[in-house]
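pinned: reference chain
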Amino acid sequence: MASKKFYLNIDYGEGKFYQYSKKPKNGYVKKESKTGKVSYRRYYDSIFGEIKKIEEKKNEFFDGNPMEIVLTVMNKDGIVYVVQFMSEKQNGDYSDFAESLIIHSKGLEKEKTYYIMPYKFEGKNGRVNTGFSIKENSSTGEKVEKLTYSYDKKEGGHVEGDIPAIVFKEKRGKIKADTEKKTDYLYDRFEELKELFNEEVKTEFSDRIPGYDEGEDTVYVSSSNENGSLVTDECNSTEEDTPNAEPKKEVDRNDLPF
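pinned: its structure tokens
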């Protein structure tokens, strides 16, 4: 049985895991929303352990009950990290972090230890890149094999990959991207991923719904949408609560291995 469970989310603006608190705490930074709501977050670069479960659930605490992906990882000390992030964009396509997790499905295996790091950085072309970097065993381990994209080259020609290319079609006088085949393919791979990683993990402390009846040793953090808006507002963590997760540090985002 695992010893403790920690709920983490992703700050889409920072490209970091975080724990949430409605009160100031040592090691947490103050965040203020556009509406003036103040909260506090402690950021982490990465988590490390075996992937136990990947599932998709409705967020009952957010307007419209959007779907979220829940990624459960357990390290060698029995610490469990439960990471929640948005499954879809408003247009129905998978979110950047969801798609990034799915394309790693080609190399992910059960009972293997992975180093998982979210990222956000601006590339040399000015495009903002977000997703996960996943490696075997450590931050310097082998990159997990990913599905490849099909695409048309600017100079002509086509590159065939695992994932169907986006098709650009003219509709009502405008060129629009048709992502149906790509999304359908990713959906099938995601279903396979959920079937592969479906192990329930129990802790010494019973699972509870975030925001209700938390005990001192169970950590709950809010979920968030792609703009980082908070949904729930309860957390009982302390500065020492999260062993084996790496605190935020400055890294060169243009030097990440993807």
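why pinned: The two ends are 34 Å apart (CA to CA). The chain is about 10% helix and 35% strand.
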